[in-house]
Amino acid sequence: MLYLLDANVLITAHTLYYPVDSVPEFWSWLAHQGAAGKLKIPIENFEEVKDGGTDDEKDLLFAWISDKDVRDAIVFDAQSDPATVADVISRGYAPDLTEDELLTLGRDPFLISYALASPKDRCVVTTEVSKPKRVRQNRHIPDVCNTLGVLWCDTFKMTKALGFKTGWKP
């Protein structure tokens, strides 16, 4: 299984429970899992990380994710398929979104499209929670994934599945 990370996974982990400077084991583990091909972050979502958190938090997190070895380990080496992204938008959100609505989607359709390309082998990881009553551009990642038959989980399910422990060593 390849876990595909939403930007909010890294931003929230750093901001709320695994700060880069307090729990460096988590961040080393992420890079190790990325190098092993078990998790990746699409380039579109990688680019979102620089926009998250306060300036101090961005500096620490962005410094970590910008490290060449880390970047090489975790950034997904794939190109998005425009037809698959369009399919995610049309079937997952709505076929007739306005330009303003499209702008509010951010990079989520790209993330989901990478998983949709191989739905039995890829799982979207997000901190978003299901809100099934939301419609159009307001739909959350879990609900779009459910509509499209794409696997998804939260950070803690991923870390449990991949065996994260603070005392891990490669």
UniProtKB/TrEMBL annotation:
GO terms for molecular function: DNA binding. InterPro entries: UCP008505. Pfam families: DUF4411 (PF14367). It comes from Bradyrhizobium icense. Keywords: DNA-binding. It comes from the Bacteria. This is DNA-binding protein.
